[in-house]
Automatic annotation (TrEMBL):
One of its GO terms (cellular component) is membrane. One of its GO terms (molecular function) is ATP hydrolysis activity. Residues 262-503 form the ABC transporter domain. The keyword Cell division does not apply. The chain crosses the membrane at residues 614-637, 658-684, 704-726, 735-757, 802-827. InterPro entries: AAA+_ATPase, ABC2_TM, ABC_transporter-like_ATP-bd, ABC_transporter-like_CS, ABCG_transporters, FHA_dom, P-loop_NTPase, SMAD_FHA_dom_sf. Gene3D superfamilies: 2.60.200.20, P-loop containing nucleotide triphosphate hydrolases. It is found in: Membrane. This is FHA domain-containing protein. It is a multi-pass membrane protein. The keyword ATP-binding applies.
Length: 837
């Protein structure tokens, strides 16, 4: 095979045709060219079977042969190539090798290069793919060869890079007229061992007329073509260059072969010109660009309000930037959000765990919600075991999350995100509130995660362990970049000895042009200039229906899991359970002290035949109604706010809003209805009641208790509204008290509402009004509590007939349903922006 000798800056390499060579500023590349005009991964030189060729990887400043910018061209002895500039960019001269290729010959050159400061990757043994065997009768073939996905591996002829300059992991050969099914199950022609993939996920068909199709087989996590999801069970034609995504794998057609790329996490990541503008035109993130190679840990620091959280939201797509792009493995995150979102893990500042559960249970429910419905319990358990071992949590797995230290708890949050093997992990202040030892522990954990083949970005306030990061991004007031580069050079860059000084400078010179200082620096030239050279572009996200996350589980299955998890959480909190019983019992019992010997019947003066108002009945009903209102609302008022962070994260991973809400309504509804029953049973048990009800005949006590139970339910729904509206849990208590007092006022027991224009109509919005009315129809409230100001006038809501009882109950429950609709709307406000559909 013909070798080529490459000469650059007076040094020479004998190129081996069995591998390719990456050129660029990336220290991990084969030929490292430290020139700002050269891109991080600029180009690759490889033997294509016929000759040597150079291929540009979309470099900013271009690759030039004979003064012409080239994308891909063949090279021969005597060729000269300039990188970054046609005339004075670094020049590669190529000449024929003197003798036949011999592997040892390369070694001394490598050693020499290393001594001279040139970094070359050790020449890892690379398996050359064998010529694929054509076996049409057998249909699809298993891969003829496994090629390690690493830089510098051989690339098949004619293929252009899809994922940076990574090489395909595997090739699959196929023949016309055959079908190749992809899935997790062993019976597929192409088995993908990835829990994100359904057992029978999709199938490629090579039609007899030479076209190729991909058909989704009703997969849980979706099949994607060029980052866009295809409809469930639909078929789409694919052509050369189209990328089909299935779980962590992507496939591309090259001739009659299918190249498979498996995302093992070792992918590059960059942000270009990210700018976020809020209503009113104010920019809160300004032109942020940075990029890192695979396996990087990036620290982000900056003073309060410098846009760190905004940046995190832009990078994760939670709140996409208005301008710029985020490139994941050279693919646009925004354009291909539907597919790439599944590769992102986000650990918010607050723990995304139910603290009452044990570590294992918390992970079990998370896995059940995030993995496709067709994963078995054993598969999920196995993955949980792997993650627990990886994060050294297996000894704590049966402990409740509350019993763990802050650092361990953070580990569990990370473990939860790692379940689905994300390649990019973002953490928002994971060490806030931790002592210095735990801070180090968490940062070392992140270092390990990056080293194991992931890109990890951590926003932090703690500067003690920044040295563990590969790169540091310092944000300046106003949301612009003040520095990006190695952490050890950062203080020097700012000219201070401590970070406290740097932050003081940010504070004292808020209007200083920190971004201008950064852009005028050498560090900028070295670490960000080439990313910035691409013109900023406006963000055009696909329509919301295309970026909706797939629902790995059906609605019913999500609901079932959520109910089980919620019941587990409640069951593990014995104090709460006891309170739920004691509260209605006490509220019911206090009504017994009110004129204990008096009943709830109409008082008629036997001599005169006139009706005497029965104050005991109105007071008892008032107390029971207030008890039910209070118990119902108190159950739910903290429910959504305390789980908001968990909800936000789970919503981004495909949780259904309505399934979530319904799980709360069912569990809390059941609890409040039982509590209402208890309040009614205690309150009415010792009282003299009418002998016949209007609807349930002799079951008068039940007929009277049903409005109390329904009131408990509707009050619980009001509580959920409060919980969905407030920003902090502390605000719920005053609102709960306010709600209960308003209910007292509008019961109709304290003053006559009927006939008071405006007030009466307003009272129709109050659940207590309808509950008192429904019980009042049975007790005949128009006679128990007659309108003395306007004798003879009666309240139609209190009419002593079954129809009035039915209307009152319907109105009460309809109010509850209306609250449900409102809660769903308010919940939407707390979802990642891309989820608000
Ligand atoms: N939706 C919005 N509308 C208007 N201004 C906003 C909005 N979101 C954030 N801001 C403002 O943008 C700036 C950056 O906010 P951001 O939360 O990203 O800062 P931060 O660096 O994360 O701060 P901290 O360290 O305090 O969390 C702040 O001044 C904030 O008030």
């Amino acid at each position: 095979m013909p070798e080529l000798v490459l000469e650059l800056n007076g040094r020479t390499w004998t190129l081996d045709p069995s591998r390719s060579y990456t050129l660029g500023r990336d220290p991990q590349g084969d030929l490292v060219i430290d020139d700002a005009r050269v891109s991080w991964r600029h180009a690759t030189i490889s033997w294509n079977g016929r000759g040597w060729a150079i291929e540009d990887h979309g470099s900013t400043n271009g690759t030039y042969v004979q003064g012409q910018r080239v994308q891909q061209t063949e090279l021969g002895a005597g060729s000269a190539v300039h990188l970054g500039n046609a005339t004075d960019g670094p020049r590669l001269s190529l000449s024929a090798a003197a003798g036949a290729y011999s592997a040892p010959a390369a070694a001394p050159q490598q050693a020499a290069a290393a001594q001279q400061g040139w970094q070359q990757q050790p020449q890892a043994p690379v398996q050359q793919p064998h010529a694929p065997q054509q076996a049409p009768q057998q249909g699809w073939q298993q891969p003829p060869a496994q090629v390690p996905a690493q830089q510098g591996g051989p690339r098949p002829q004619g293929a252009s890079p899809v994922h940076g300059d990574r090489s395909p992991t595997t090739f699959h050969q196929f023949s016309l007229g055959r079908v190749m099914r992809i899935g997790r199950a062993l019976e597929n022609e192409l088995v993908v061992s990835d829990l994100q993939v359904s057992r029978l996920h999709a199938e490629f068909t090579a039609t007899p007329d030479g076209r190729f199709e991909i058909r989704d087989l009703g997969s849980h996590n979706g099949t994607y073509v060029n980052g866009q999801p295809i409809a469930k069970s639909s078929t789409v034609l694919i052509g050369a260059g189209d990328i089909v995504g299935v779980g962590h794998s992507t496939f591309r057609l090259v001739g009659d072969r299918l190249e498979e790329f498996v995302d093992t996490g070792e992918v590059s990541f960059s942000a270009r010109h990210l700018t976020v503008t809020v209503d009113g035109g104010k920019q809160i993130l300004r032109d942020v660009s940075f990029g890192v190679p695979e396996k990087s840990l990036i620290g982000v620091i900056g003073p309060s309000g410098s846009g760190k959280s905004t940046l995190l939201k832009a990078l994760t797509g939670y709140r996409p930037a208005n301008q710029g792009d985020v490139l994941y493995d050279n693919r646009s995150l925004y354009k291909q959000f539907a597919e790439l979102r599944q590769r992102i893990g986000l650990v918010p500042q607050d723990d995304i765990l139910h603290k009452e559960l044990t570590v294992r249970k918390a992970l079990k429910y998370a896995a059940k919600l995030r993995f496709p419905a067709d994963t078995t319990e054993a598969e999920r358990e196995a993955r949980i075991g792997e993650v627990l071992r990886e994060l050294k949590l297996d000894i704590h797995k049966d402990k409740k999350v509350t019993a763990l230290s802050g650092g361990q708890r953070k580990r569990v949050s990370v473990a939860l995100e790692l379940l689905t093997k994300p390649s990019l992990i973002f953490l928002d202040e994971p060490t806030s509130g931790l002592d210095p030892g735990m801070d180090r522990d968490v940062m070392q954990l992140l270092r390990g995660l990056a080293d194991d083949g992931r890109t990890v970005l951590v926003v932090t306030h703690s500067v003690a362990e920044l040295g563990l990061c590969d790169k540091l991004l310092v944000m300046a007031p106003g949301g612009s970049v003040a520095y990006f580069g190695p952490p050890e050079e950062a203080l020097n860059f700012f000219g201070y000895t401590t970070w406290a000084d740097v932050f003081s400078a940010f504070e004292n010179y808020r209007d200083y042009d920190w971004a201008g200082r950064w852009k005028g620096s050498q560090h900028y030239q070295m670490y960000a200039a080439d990313l910035d050279a691409v013109a900023p572009q406006a963000v055009n996200m696909p329509p919301p229906q295309q970026i909706r996350p797939p629902k790995p589980q059906s609605w019913g299955s999500q609901l079932f899991t959520l109910i089980r998890r919620y019941v587990s959480v409640i069951a593990s909190d014995k104090g709460f359970m006891a309170l739920m019983l004691v509260l209605p019992a006490v509220l019911g019992a206090v009504s017994l002290v009110i004129d204990p010997d008096k009943g709830l019947l109409v008082n008629v003066n036997e001599q005169t035949g006139r009706i005497i108002p029965n104050g005991t009945a109105t007071t008892v009903l008032l107390i029971l109604v207030v008890g039910a209102c209070f118990a119902g609302a108190a159950n739910s008022v903290r429910e959504l706010i305390k789980e908001r962070v968990i909800y936000e994260r789970e919503r981004a991973t495909g949780l259904s809003r309505s399934a979530y809400l319904m799980s709360k309504v069912i569990v809390l509804g059941l609890i409040t209805v039982i509590q209402g029953g208890l309040v009614g049973a205690i309150g009415f048990a010792t009282r003299e009641l009418p002998s016949e009800g209007l609807v349930l005949g002799s079951m008068v006590m039940l007929e009277l208790s049903l409005p109390i139970m329904a009131l408990g339910f509707t009050s619980m729904m009001f509580g959920l509204i409060i919980s969905a509206l407030v920003k902090t849990a502390e605000k719920t208590m005053p609102l709960l008290v306010m709600f209960a007092i308003i209910q007292v006022v509008f019961t109709g027991c304290l003053f006559i509402l009927h006939g008071t224009v405006g007030v009466n109509e307003f009272s129709y919005l109050m659940p207590s009004r309808w509950a008192v009315a429904a019980a009042g129809t049975t007790l005949d409230f128009n006679r128990i509590n007659p309108n003395t100001d306007d004798p003879g006038s009666t309240d139609p809501l209190w009419d002593h007939d079954a129809a009035a009882w039915g209307i009152d109950m319907t109105a009460l429950l309809a109010l509850g349903a209306l609250c449900g609709v409102l809660v769903a709307r308010f919940l939407r406000r707390h979802e990642p922006e891309v989820m608000r559909k």
